[in-house]
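Here is one chain, start to finish.
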Amino acid sequence: MQYSPTTVQSLHTTAKRTTMYRYVFSDIPNNAEGAALVASMREYLNKDSYTLRVKGQYQKDGLNWRDYPSGQPINKSKCLRVYIDKVTT
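Its structure:
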């Protein structure tokens, strides 16, 4: 099957857009200061237009990654990542 150069360019552009990092903040320490930062973000976020998700980053020392095949929980993480997504209507 032959694709036109325009179609190939469109597919390439779409692929680039979907493979970007989707997190806005990373390496937030998983401690009281980091929790306060995330709480403040949640408080002032424009909830009509955006959603905020927090996920763990970097597993704490001494833990086995095989115990968490879908990713470790926040309490087992050294740092946090914050994802801010635009609400789709």
